[in-house]
């Protein structure tokens, strides 16, 4: 048995693997003849989250709410403007002097799978070369890296004898996404960030790839952050769910809590807007209307207030903080925050 088929001891499921506090990423917009900065897109604006060992954290929200920017920050493909990241108890971005995990080591332990399976593969490399590339960069011998590539091809359901020598354009979209997954696992990561990994696939292929991801997580002892705008897919795959709105966290909690007892009006509206065959799952709240505001100039106070049926004066005046609702479930909404001044808020006992 080789190292790849043996899941290393990664600790109990409740321990945090990645803890992120106050993550911020603003993009400057330049314009005019002199190319001066004319505006700032507040793509991610104070996101805090925890991904526990062995779990899948689903991240949902409408287009433009900052999911992909969050994914790139978690992967450290982008540098945050502010915020702290702690990976398995160690500060991310440390040096020999400061201690902590170096970015190079972090980027080995955290890998990413993107939506566009074709764009993320080099068309000039065979599938075997594609998967073996990163291990070789990290000092694994050519022979061992090729063996690892074949083992991973088999693990993602592609017969090595049939696929190893082919090029990305010679396989289907679903097979290409399997290759991307194999490539992401080649450095034996602990955390895999999946950014809309099944959104470009047909429904039947989508189900196969989702089941494959579930199997691989078990087999290799992985932890996932799963980003998607598809609430049904996120419900299927996640243990916990984080709902983003306009660069911030609206609500987070265990998957059953979020889907059965959503507290934030945004989560309720999102769920009411999703396509469902089950009438009981439809229209539990008014569905979403309109588009999210521009993240260059977000509304004051609660960012959702301009689309919220519960909005009151306090929602424009104060930024809501996350209110704890039940174990691990919290929502940033004045209407659920005891003593917030919102007419629907629980009263604080004297
Ligand atoms: N490099 C960039 N420069 C300027 N603005 C950016 C940049 N990248 C993202 N944005 C903006 O940041 C906001 C968040 O974008 P992001 O792609 O993270 O959202 P998303 O939730 O992943 O959306 P989608 O589901 O459409 O991919 C958007 O308004 C987007 O236009």
UniProtKB/TrEMBL annotation:
Localization terms from the record: Cell inner membrane
Keyword terms of this UniProt record: ATP-binding, Cell inner membrane, Cell membrane, Hydrolase, Membrane, Nucleotide-binding, Repeat, Translocase, Transport
GO MF: ATP binding; ATP hydrolysis activity
Top class in the EC scheme: translocase
Residue span of region Disordered: 271-300
Stretches assigned to the ABC transporter domain: 18-271
Protein name as annotated: Glutathione import ATP-binding protein GsiA
Family per record: Belongs to the ABC transporter superfamily. Glutathione importer (TC 3.A.1.5.11) family.
Membrane topology: Peripheral membrane protein
InterPro entries: AAA+_ATPase, ABC_transp_ATP-bind, ABC_transporter-like_ATP-bd, ABC_transporter-like_CS, Oligopep_ABC_C, P-loop_NTPase
